[in-house]
Amino acid sequence: TMRQKKEASPDSRPPVIDVSGLHVSAKTLSPGAASRMHALGRASTIRSVPSIDDSESGPESRHSPLASSVNSTASTTSAMSAAAAATAASPPLPDRSPPPIRLKSDDVTSPPVRWGARAVRASEPPPASYVRDVTSSPPPEGLDPDSSGQWDSTIGKAGLGKTGRVINKLVSDNDALKRDIQIERLRADEAKQAARLVEDKMERIISDYEGRLLEASVTKTLLTRKERQVETLTAAIDVEKKKAAAALEREKNWRNELEKVRGDSAAQIDEATSYAALMEGRYKAISSHWRDQGDEVKRAVTRIRGEISTIVEERRSDDDKIQTLRDLCDQQDSNIRQLRRERDDMSRLFDAYKQTQEDDLRGIRDEARAREEEQERILEESRSALAKLKWALNVKENVADAQ
To answer: Which stretches are tagged as biased composition: Basic and acidic residues (predicted)?
Structure first.
């Protein structure tokens, strides 16, 4: 490469003239070339100054059309400065002196250079830390402001011509567009973050909604189950209430019978007591009158007491029989109900059987009637055919002209 060749032969380089931080070979410049470069420098007054944006000094920006034009402008400017340094010893021309350039500092380390066309070394864009601040000097008196040119932070003397103004405008528009793009990117990032937050919130809401739906479904299922249980328990309670009402009714009947038996027993006991008192009075009367018949009276009393005990035992057995009869009545009642149901079933089955028999008989009658009509028709046809056959056999006798 060119850099390796330069490093391999450092003694073969031509002497370099350093003018205002620009390295130009003085050996390769002739007076005619210097004058031509001076005229070219007056025509092209835009000097390449690196942009503040680091992205423009990258490899992509160096290979862009704007970078190539800037590099060519830098080459011509370097050549112009070298020509001005070479002709510094000669008397200056009145109308060909370049406009004055003021640099902020002259002790800045010179940037690396590269060899260009016509043995002119154009300096590489210096790093951001070595960029020189270019200030605009007020134009001298009697000089047109447009001819003096204002230095721009990006392009240089961009106000000298239409091209400079266009480039300056394009650069400013490019910076504004970059800022707008950065703002839009930030807005897009914020919108994405907001959309992501909204999506997370929607997912949480959906999961919460699904959980509540599941909980509502489970609650509804449990409520339905409880309602069925309540219905079952209500039916069981109604059955138990009916059983309790029937038991209360039976208890009431039993109590009535018990009171009735107690009343009858009390009446009989009173009657027996009165009868015993009467007998005792008689016994006393008899014993007073007939002391000798005391044994007979005692036997009579003993007999009466035995009769009373027998009556009491009979009443007790009657109570047991009444209870047994009551149980038998309940059993017979249930049997009667069962028999009634069976009778109803038998009546229903008999009615169904009778209806079936009537339907079958009706069908048989209809079939017999139809069969009889068919037989009558066949007999009628047979009679008619027989009569016709007889007439045909006796045609000679019936028809006079028949042979």
So the answer is: 1-10
